[in-house]
Specification:
7-stranded antiparallel beta sheet; 5 helices
Length: 217
């Protein structure tokens, strides 16, 4: 995969040694994460909205109600900032200010555009469902025409994007170490046991793609 040329908006200035601009790293983080935060300016005020997304090729797809302030703002051509973070561990340092976290994060800047075609919107909805759980689309009812009309889908090209990654232990000087325990407490996203919906089919077995769920899909 190629590298993205860092722009003035995506160049990492704080701890630049942790910056990554290659698509392989950026896409791997996006494909494992599940929720992003989208920053916009609406009615003169900054707004940050959490939502889910899906990466399809070199673009992010976002969807929501046609009545949503976020979607209407994006559809109007407002610039936006999308951020995603994966927590990999808590770093316990010998000093109070040395504590940190290991993480992988991505920031995407740009302007989204609306997907108008009903066929493209339907394909996007399939991508959203499959991103949640591969193979799920074939098991559920697809969106109705009315549901599609009530849903807006926008695409954000992955042109201005950068990743930032921290790994390892504390960065305190050697003389700061004393009797306190130091190290890393790793974090990993692991699903629990599936909980059956009481209104669902009581005889339906839990599918393998749910009982053995992993990310990325």
């Amino acid at each position: 995969m190629s590298k993205l040329a860092p722009s003035a908006r995506t160049t990492v200035k704080r701890k630049p040694d942790r910056a990554r601009y290659d698509r392989e790293t950026i896409y791997a983080i996006l494909d494992q994460a599940f929720v992003c935060a989208i920053g916009i300016v609406a009615d003169g005020l900054p707004v940050v909205v959490p939502t889910n997304y899906v990466r399809v090729g070199d673009r992010l797809l976002l969807h929501g109600s046609t009545a949503s302030r976020l979607m209407r703002t994006l559809a109007g051509g407002a610039p936006c900032c999308v951020s995603v973070t994966l927590l990999d561990g808590i770093v316990f340092a010998p000093t109070a200010t040395g504590h940190s976290v290991n993480y992988r994060s991505v920031v995407v800047m740009g302007t989204a555009r609306v997907i108008e075609s009903p066929e493209a919107k339907l394909a996007a909805m399939r991508d959203f469902v499959e991103y949640v759980n591969r193979g799920r689309w074939a098991a559920v009812r697809p969106p109705t025409d009315q549901e599609l009309k009530a849903t807006m889908v926008v695409e954000l090209p992955l042109v201005e994007a950068s990743a930032k990654v921290r790994t390892g232990f504390a960065v305190d000087d050697d003389e700061a170490y004393g009797s306190a325990w130091t190290g890393v407490l790793p974090f990993a996203w692991t699903p629990g046991a599936p909980v059956r919906d009481p209104r669902g089919n009581a005889e339906a077995p839990v599918p393998d793609n749910i009982s053995r769920y992993v990310r990325p899909q």
